């Protein structure tokens, strides 16, 4: 048994003992004790006189009990004072079983209120002994009320108050009552089983006796001359033959009544379960569960920061207040240990069937699921557990079971099982934490709460692009709203701009309010939120052009990235651009390569110039999330998807098919080997509207941020400036660059920059051309590209072939 649990149970027991003492002392109140006690000073507990007094008391709870009873019954609330004693038991039970102290606290308030009420009612009544029940306080309250509102009025008021308090308490304690009901039912079941065991044993004994009797009378009848066997004679002593070819002296052995074996039978008498003590033995062998404390995030008031700022063009801007977000009930972190124990037992039982031995088990209760961490016996292979995922899910009859084998960095495997008390994570609660208030991340986006209840915030600037997939209704749009809102709560309109592409037309509608602050304008397009696929291609190409222009600026300033640029030239600082595409499938269906190419290009190159993509789709199939797109989005979020295949497409592994929907997600950052399960916060469209219209009502910036016209030479051709494989579109340094990467066997842009003295954007363009001509592989995040040509000769051959084309 773990120490923590033992401590809690001890404290619970102590409280129950105090409860017994309290009620017992009052129950044995004797008016005669008062006289004896009056001769004893209150601090006198030792000495002869104290012993004499204690010996003469009628109250078996000694001096302390008698004093307590005297004080409470005679001078306070009469016999009614006994009722609050029940609270000790509730506290004891709560301390031993639960982590939340709220229910017993409410119960104590309720019971004190009811005690005062009952005392007053007894004070009002004329029943015999009513005075003794009401005590001084009850009588006083009754007198006060009947003077103020009359006798009948006082009765009506008291009854109404008692009824009202009981109704309220019933609501508050409905869950506790059902728990108590379950506990009582379980206790009842145990009693019934014990009772059945006993009566079964009695019946069997009777049956044996009857059988023995009938056998001996049969023997006596068959062999009247035979001597009666002595009382102590063994049944196997040589006596008469029986039917069935037994030799004389042979008796069928009398079956011993099995002492420990007990077979529970169904109504039809069939065996339900062979229980030769297995349950008890098993539960003794079972490892104890340790409940891990969830993380308590330090709270902070987000409104207590500098809310008013001035933009670069001297326009005042005020950050939205968190009061625009719904005030919600506190997220209840109460852990129902009995349910937890039930899940643990079921899990261990199933694992036992598959012969998986567990040494230690601990549980972390998250917003939607409980993570059981299992330390396995050394001879159990981890692969065995992984192969059991489906069987376990079926055996436990639960959706949402996910196995993490092993948990990265731990000597344990994880099994996530949904618990019966899903908690909504509210947007307000995840923003009102110190972590978010004092974040130093460039583009902080809140993703939600982890299983250990920690608020998970990541930096979009380092992700650097995010791919989101999930079935319809799984929570993608809510997720995008959460991310955009966290950016609105942390960045001023100077710092960040949004390019919003919404082919579904309804998802990003509220952001129209941001047109004068956060939305870019396009040279050549009227819309600021793009909804038509053709215009989306135009807008994406505009962003590509912007990227190229930014690279030129960076080159001129002699810096490597946007952060350095903004530090070096604060007067010309560039805002970060966040490009959001809410439904890639709609675009890919109509735009195909025309959409894929600018997205890929941006994903490959745009990070350094502060352009970041958030792309969502409800169709995570390979024709939408192509290999090239996938390779360039190292950070991915999977909400619930329909199949394992979809899960593999987005995460390169299963798991997303086992999610529960409603914002339950797996986040795979570029830097971690395995995805993390997170519950996305909930933000309603009303809240998004409130935030955006708060911003929209403020004075807009003097100058909109305008994106340039894209380079469109041939409308029908794929748009890939500089990335073409045609001879005329190749950079003059192409051949030299090809030789360089093959010689060094290293496809890195910085190598070209250094050795060929090229600017970043030109070097990146040449690298794309090398890829398009099959000399290097696709970009793999920040790693150098793979060089596909082994040696100089092979390269010469390839270059000759290219020239012949
Ligand atoms: N984080 C969350 N917490 C609680 N409920 C959520 C959460 N996210 C989504 N939901 C519920 O699921 C519903 C659908 O969510 P949402 O519109 O984001 O789905 P979607 O994946 O964008 O669907 P579609 O692809 O059809 O647009 C919401 O209206 C809400 O009731």
Summarize the model shown.
The protein is 46% helix and 12% strand. With 805 residues, it is an alpha/beta fold. A ten-stranded mixed β-sheet has the order 11-10-20-19-18-12-17-16-13-15. A five-stranded mixed β-sheet has the order 3-6-7-9-8. Strands 1-2 form a two-stranded antiparallel ribbon.
- Sheet with the most strands, sense and barrel status: 10 strands, mixed
Average of per-residue pLDDT values: 80
CATH superfamily of the largest domain: P-loop containing nucleotide triphosphate hydrolases
* Residue windows where pLDDT falls under 50 for at least 5 positions: 225-284, 714-725
Radius of gyration, in Å, reads 39 Å
Structural class: alpha/beta
CATH topology of the largest domain: Rossmann fold
* Strand ordering within the main sheet: 11-10-20-19-18-12-17-16-13-15
Question: What general outline do the C-alpha atoms trace?
Answer: elongated
Give the fraction of residues assigned to helices.
40-55%
Number of helices: 26
Task: Report the bound ligands by name, code or SMILES.
Answer: adenosine-5'-triphosphate
Task: Describe the fold and architecture.
The chain is an alpha/beta fold. The protein folds into 4 domains: 3-172, no CATH class; 334-418, Threonyl-tRNA Synthetase, Chain A, domain 2; 458-695, Rossmann fold (3-Layer(aba) Sandwich), CATH 3.40.50.300; 734-804, Arc Repressor Mutant, subunit A (Orthogonal Bundle), CATH 1.10.10. 46% of the residues lie in helices and 12% in strands. The protein contains 26 helices and 21 strands. A 10-stranded mixed β-sheet has the order 11-10-20-19-18-12-17-16-13-15. A hairpin with an 8-residue loop joins β8 (402-404) and β9 (413-418). α16 crosses α18. The longest helix is centred in the first third of the chain and has 49 residues, at 174-222. It binds adenosine-5'-triphosphate. Residues 424, 470, 472-478, 618, 662-663, 680-682 line the site of adenosine-5'-triphosphate (ATP).
């Amino acid at each position: 048994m773990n120490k923590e649990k033992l401590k809690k149970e001890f404290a619970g027991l102590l409280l129950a003992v105090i409860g017994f003492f309290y009620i017992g002392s009052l129950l044995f109140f004797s008016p005669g004790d008062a006289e004896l006690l009056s001769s004893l000073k209150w601090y006198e507990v030792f000495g002869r006189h104290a012993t004499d007094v204690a010996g003469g008391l009628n109250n078996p709870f000694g001096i302390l009990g008698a004093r307590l009873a005297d004080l409470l019954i005679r001078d306070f609330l009469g016999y009614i004072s006994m009722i609050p004693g029940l609270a000790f038991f509730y506290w004891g039970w709560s301390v031993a079983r639960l982590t939340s102290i709220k229910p017993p606290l409410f119960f104590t308030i309720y019971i004190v209120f009811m005690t005062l009420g009952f005392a007053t009612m007894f004070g009002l009544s004329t029943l015999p002994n009513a005075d003794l029940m009401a005590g001084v306080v009850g009588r006083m309250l009754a007198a006060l009320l009947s003077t103020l509102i009359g006798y009948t009025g006082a009765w009506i008021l008291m009854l109404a108050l008692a009824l009202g308090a009981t109704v309220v308490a019933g609501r508050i304690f409905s869950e506790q009552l059902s728990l108590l009901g379950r506990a009582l039912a379980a206790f009842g079941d145990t009693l019934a089983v014990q009772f059945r065991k006993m009566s079964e044993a009695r019946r069997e004994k009777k049956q044996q006796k009857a059988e023995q009797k009938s056998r001996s009378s049969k023997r006596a009848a068959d062999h009247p001359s035979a001597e009666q066997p002595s009382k102590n004679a063994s049944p196997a002593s040589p006596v008469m033959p029986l039917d069935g070819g037994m030799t004389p002296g042979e008796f069928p052995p009398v079956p011993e009544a099995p002492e420990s074996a007990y077979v529970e039978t169904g109504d039809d008498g069939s065996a339900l379960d062979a229980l030769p003590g297995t349950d008890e033995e098993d539960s003794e062998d079972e490892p104890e569960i340790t409940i891990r404390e969830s993380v308590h995030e330090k709270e902070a008031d987000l409104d207590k920061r500098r809310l008013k700022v001035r933009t670069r063009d001297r326009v005042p801007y005020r950050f939205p207040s968190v009061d625009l977000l719904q005030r919600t009930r506190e997220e209840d972190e109460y852990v129902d240990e009995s349910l937890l124990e039930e899940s643990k037992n079921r899990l261990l039982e199933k694992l036992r069937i598959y012969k998986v031995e567990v040494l230690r088990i601990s549980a972390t209760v998250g917003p939607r699921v409980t993570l059981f961490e299992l330390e396995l016996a050394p001879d159990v292979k981890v692969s065995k557990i992984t192969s059991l995922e489906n069987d376990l899910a079926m055996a436990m009859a639960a959706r949402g079971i996910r196995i993490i084998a092993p948990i990265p960095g731990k000597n344990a495997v994880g099994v996530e099982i949904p618990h019966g008390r899903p908690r909504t994570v509210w947007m307000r609660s995840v923003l009102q934490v110190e972590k978010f208030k004092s974040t130093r991340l460039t583009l902080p986006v809140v993703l939600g709460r982890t299983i250990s209840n920690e608020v998970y915030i990541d930096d979009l600037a380092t992700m650097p692009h995010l791919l989101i997939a999930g079935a319809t209704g799984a929570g993608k749009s809510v997720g995008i709203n959460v991310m955009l809102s966290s950016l609105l709560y942390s960045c001023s309109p100077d710092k960040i701009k949004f390019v919003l592409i919404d082919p579904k037309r309804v998802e990003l509608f509220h952001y129209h309010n941001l047109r004068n602050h956060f939305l870019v304008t396009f040279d050549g397009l009227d819309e600021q939120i793009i909804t038509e696929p053709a215009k989306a291609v135009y807008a994406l190409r505009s962003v590509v052009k912007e990227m190229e222009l930014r690279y030129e600026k960076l080159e001129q300033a002699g810096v490597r990235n946007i952060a350095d640029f903004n530090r070096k030239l604060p007067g010309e600082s560039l805002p970060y651009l966040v490009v959001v595409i809410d439904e890639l499938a709609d675009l890919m269906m109509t735009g195909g390569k025309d959409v894929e190419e600018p997205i890929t290009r941006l994903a490959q190159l745009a990070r350094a110039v502060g352009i970041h993509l958030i792309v969502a789709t409800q169709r995570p199939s390979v024709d939408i999330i192509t290999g090239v797109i996938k390779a360039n989005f190292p950070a991915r979020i999977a909400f619930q998807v329909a199949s394992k295949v979809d899960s593999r497409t987005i995460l390169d592994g299963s798991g997303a098919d086992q999610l529960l929907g409603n914002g339950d997600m797996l986040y795979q950052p570029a830097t971690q080997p395995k995805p993390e399960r997170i519950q996305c916060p909930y933000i309603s469209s009303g809240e998004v509207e409130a935030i955006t219209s708060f911003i929209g009502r403020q004075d807009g910036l003097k100058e909109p941020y305008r994106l340039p016209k894209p380079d469109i030479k041939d409308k029908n051709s794929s748009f890939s400036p500089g990335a073409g494989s045609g001879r005329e579109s190749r950079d003059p340094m192409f051949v030299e660059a090809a030789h360089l990467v093959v010689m060094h066997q290293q496809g890195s842009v910085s190598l070209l920059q250094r050795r060929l003295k090229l600017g970043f954007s030109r070097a990146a363009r040449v690298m794309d051309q090398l890829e398009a001509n099959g000399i290097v592989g696709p970009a793999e995040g920040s790693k150098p590209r793979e060089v596909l040509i082994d040696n100089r000769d092979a390269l010469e051959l390839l270059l000759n072939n290219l020239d012949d084309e």
